[in-house]
Amino acid sequence: MQRVKRRFDDLPSTKLIDFLRGKIQKLEKDKKEIVGVFGKTGAGKSFLINTILGETKLLPSGNQGACTSVMIQVEANMTDSDSKYIAEIEFITEKEWKEELWSIFSDISYKDRNDEDQERDDDDDEKISALYGKDGSGATLEELMDRKHFREIPEFRLSVKKIFLCDTAEELSEKITCYTRSDTQSDTFKRQYWPLVKCITIKVPNSKDLLEHVVLVDLPGNGDCNKSRDEMWKSFVGNCSAVWIVSDIARATSEKESWEILDSTVSLFGPGGECRSISFICTKTDDIEENNQKADARTCILRRNETTKKQVRDKFNKQKEMKKHFSGGKDFLQVFTVSSKEYQKEKHLPQEETEIPKLQEFLRNLNDRRTRSSDYVSGAYGILSLIQGAKSSDTRGKKGSGYHKVVKTLCKNGGVYKPKGKRERRMEINLNDSLASCMIKLIDEEFKRYFPNEGKRGPIREQIDTFTLDTNSLFGKNPKVSLHLIFLKTEETELKTKLICDLREKKKKIYCTLTESIKDSMRQCYIRASEHTGKDSLKRMKDELHHHMKNNNIFQKAKEDMLGCLINLKEHIVMQLKCKLQESMDLSLKTSNRSFFPDDVTVEYNKMKMCYEKLMGSSSTVQFTPRLDLHTKTTTFESQSGNGRKRVQVSTSITMLNPEIVKELTTHNRNPTYRLQCPKAGLFQCSSTELVFLMEGKGDVIYMMTQWDSSLLGSMTPAGPLFSIDCPEQSVRQLHLPHCMCDEKDDNLSVAHVTDGNMEIVQPLKTTATHVIVNITHLSLFGLIRNWFSFISVRSQVLLFLRPQGNRPQKRILNVILLPKNVPLCEVEHQQKGSTFIQTISNCTLSPRGKYGLCCELVPNSSTKPKSGQFDYDYSPNFHPTFQVFLDCMSGIENIRLSLLDRGSNDQRVWECLIPTDFEPPQINLINPNPGAEPELNPLLGAAFVDKYMADLIQKVPIPMGIADRLFAENMIQQEMYTTIRSAKTSQDQMRLMLDAVRSGGTVKYAFYKALINHYPYVVRDLEAASAD
Q: What Å distances lie between residue 394 and 286, 318, 416, 437, CA to CA?
């Protein structure tokens, strides 16, 4: 898609072009799943993340006196420097740090005035000490803001990110330590910058398997006093798809902090977020008595693990208030007992018993690269189809000045009080949450039912999933716009996916509406209350709050605000479905001015189409085994539809249908594209190609012959044409490919299934006298192959085409083409336009790579070239004459006798026919005497053109192998050169090699020019037009 995007860059701005630019840009964006990792200091979060990623020295860990003090997000390195370890450090602003220092000084001043049981704040002291050392003691605000303290981090003052690029994880870890961790036990002062850090993003190479679409975030437990850090913390918590609570196994159930973290954040990642699972991870399971024997140690560890898991689940089930926030799927809470040390050393446990592999598998499932790929391919396929189609808490019990400070701070901070200090782990007080809690409890159950994070989809999601434009039913009625309908189908899927994401995002805001509305209603009251000072100010603040709540209907307003948000959500969904799909329909079905599009996206379209079929087909189709009932002459199979599994029974009799040539996809330079309209379930055969399709229902099958890629075949060789097959309705369930084997019991035949440049060999279900039958799960490229070393004779055909020699109607050339029987005649006729097909007995039996000669009798002055030719068993889309009979005079001749002689069997006749000469000759066009065939060209002018535009041709010819095929068939280039050209990696390299080969002489250069005009006339036309200008 990047190539397509680059082609759009220079195009003029139109409504459709801008629309497609936006679609491609949106396709590249990736919303990642967030895993929030919480835990007490020393629980081993950093060590755990390192072990899961296989990076022992990525996040700084292991020092007992140090702890991670900032938010760290770890993701896969998807940049151009994808082999490097990258750290991006985002700082708070200089203004925010000054405000934080001012807040610290205000707290110190307040405590100095109120000496009643005031405690020094450990957090504040630690920040000052870490950044300033002894210089911070007794310094003023201005002294602490002096720029000399920030000399080593100019990025802080410039408000830009500081970036480290390192070759190893250990090097990166060493560089970021002072930005991530507080170290209270170091004897010497080394400036630490973590108090200024807002967040650190670490990008890890070679981790796409786990982190391509996932971000691991190491989060402090209770937010931050700094406003910007706190907002980022809340954003991360609210966006968590999964939450990991990490705790030392020895204190998993007794330690209060882990459970307090869970309790204090549950409203943010529950109904107010999008968390779909909680994992309680018990670490350090290897921490047992050293005197245990290895076998005893393993038993002891595993026994304690099972006991702890049960205890954690029991304790979680007792948290009634906490559990109310979730709809409670069976696997919503998972408990893991892990040992990072044992995973690395395997002293007592094998790796699988450390449960680190389970956490890695958890991330892989969340990463879900296949679904992301499916979404990308579906979107890209829709865009390319449109382009291609257009071109064809509680305050009771507090007393005294301490309580006064709480209420004062609460009013100053809009109803929120965040306690500081490590000595007493107190819960945050949020008056707005407390006021809204009575309403939230009343709506919680209904809210979870309509907006579940896990388990069932909910009624709103079900309505979105059920909505459809039903494009499948339109394919048969409107075949000319099938590509446009494919685009609309992918647009519908993409829009529904986006609406589901919108639903997740908006429901978080809706859930918080009650609290936010009350906060907004109380804002002016908080400001007034915070201004009360002096004697009895505490009482006056409380009275102010009570009076405002009593006389202002804040709860009614909150209710109306939430109802308004729900109505807006409904209108948003309806409007998106109506407007976006209407826009897509207008732009795709009413589009014009296709000249503004890129020259050709056929290559990209076909590649993306195969990817789409591979990804979508395997998920939407169920394997089945048709069963033949000999009494009723029917075939029965089971199929999967949108309404579940269904049994389909069809007659074994085959209905012959004439295909339609899809004119907009067929030119004289391109093989015909066929459409077979199958009206119902059953077996239907194409009268032109002899392909048979078993249909589970009505559908249009679109197919064409295409080129085999010899690099995929190895020791196999084609045994039939390669067909590109599609069915928009996905109703083809079995394919019957025509073969040309004389013996149906020949077990050398296999079916090649080619998708995305890879070939899968499929064993046939059955081989009949005429066809090889194979069950299919999704459509792409199918063809028959056999062992290259097999020389068994095959059913063949001799095809005759008569054409005039230039402007001389009395002189004719009879082209004699030897082909396997399963090459469709219509394909050969398409390439022989301008010639007359002579219908005669064509059947014979020939040996692959056998030598044959042609004898022409009863016609004087005739000559046959070559004297001997090889039966090449050819299935390329370009069919060239094996022999040519030059008939210089036909007057007075009634019949022509032709015989095919087997040179390997003493010229034994293997085919002969008598052709009357009274057939209707082809019409001669005086301007172009041979329409549809090659025009007569000037060899000197052709050679001069090639010499002049060699450099341009290297860049402009998109697929050179078609030209190379023709030159090789005409013996203009040798086998070795042909193989070298095919093995070149790019089209430019292939063209350079080919042009080097044609420099040798005028004949081969002229042959190249003719092949160029035949395959890419527009390239020649454009170059000549540019030269004329």
A: 40, 21, 12, 12
User: Are 706 and 819 contained in the same domain?
Assistant: no
Alpha-carbon span 574 to 467, nearest angstrom: 11
Residues 275 and 419 in one domain: no
Beta strands in 821-923 (DSSP E): 836-838, 843-846, 851-857, 862-865, 869-870, 883-887, 895-902, 908-916
Dihedral sign computed on CA atoms, order 923, 924, 927, 928: positive
| Beta-bridge mates of residue 741 | 794
Q: Evaluate whether residue 603 is within a structural domain.
A: no
- Structural domain boundaries, residue 657: 652-787
What 3-state class would DSSP assign to 914? strand
What residues pair up with 67 in beta bridges, in sequence order?
182
Contacts of 750 (CB under 8 A, 6+ apart): 716, 761, 762, 763, 764, 784, 785, 786
Q: Crossing angle for the helix pair 122-132 and 94-113, nearest 10 degrees? A: 130
Within a domain: 433? yes
**pLDDT of the residue at 792:** 79
Answer positive or negative: Cα dihedral of 831, 835, 838, 844. Answer: negative
Using CB atoms within 10 Å of the CB of residue 117, give its burial: 0 to 12 exposed, 13 to 18 middle, 19+ buried.
exposed
136 secondary structure, DSSP code: G
Please check whether residue 306 lies inside any domain of the structure. Answer: yes
* Cβ-based neighbour number of residue 302 at 10 Å: 15
How far lies 529's CA from each of 225, 381, 393, 398, in Å? 21, 60, 20, 18
DSSP 414: T
Task: Tell me 487's DSSP state.
Answer: H
Q: Which DSSP symbol is given to 401? A: H
744, 848, 761: which is closest to 796 by C-alpha?
Answer: 848
Closest CA to 984 of 1007, 1003, 959: 959
Nearest to 775 by CA among 753, 743, 802, 797: 753
One domain for residues 183 and 161 = yes
Cα radius of gyration (the chain): 38
The CATH number covering residue 737 comes to 2.60.220.50
Which DSSP category does 632 fall into? T
324: which DSSP letter? T
Nearest to residue 132, comparing CAs of 87, 101, 93?
101
738: closest CA among 705, 709, 702?
Answer: 705
Q: Are strands 750-755 and 781-787 parallel, antiparallel or unpaired?
A: antiparallel
Query: What confidence score (pLDDT) does residue 392 get?
Result: 59
Tell whether 340 and 227 lie within a shared domain. yes
- φ and ψ at residue 202, rounded to 5 degrees: -110, 130
What total of structural domains would you count in the chain? 5
Residues lower than pLDDT 50 in the chain: 64-65, 116-117, 393-399, 422-425, 593, 595, 617-633, 640-645, 921-936
344 in the same domain as 207? yes
Whether 211 maps to a domain, the answer reads yes
CB 671 within 8 A of CB 877: yes
Last-in-domain residue among 763, 787, 811: 787
Residues 347, 478: one domain?
A: no
Domain-ending residue, one of 860, 881, 916: 916
What's the CATH code of the domain at 472? 1.20.120
Instruction: Check whether residue 528 and residue 468 sit in a common domain.
Output: yes
Q: Please tell me the predicted confidence (pLDDT) of residue 137.
A: 83
Secondary-structure percent of the chain, ordered helix, strand, coil, rounded to 5: 45, 20, 35
Same domain? 198 vs 338 = yes
pLDDT of residue 38: 86
Pairwise CA distance, residues 970 & 349, whole Å? 69
Distance CA 318, CA 556 (A): 34
Secondary structure (3-state) at 74? strand
Measured between alpha carbons, how far is 589 from 611 in angstroms, rounded to an integer? 25
Angle formed at CA 119 by CA 115 and CA 120, multiple of 5 degrees: 110
What are 696's two structure tokens? 């589970």
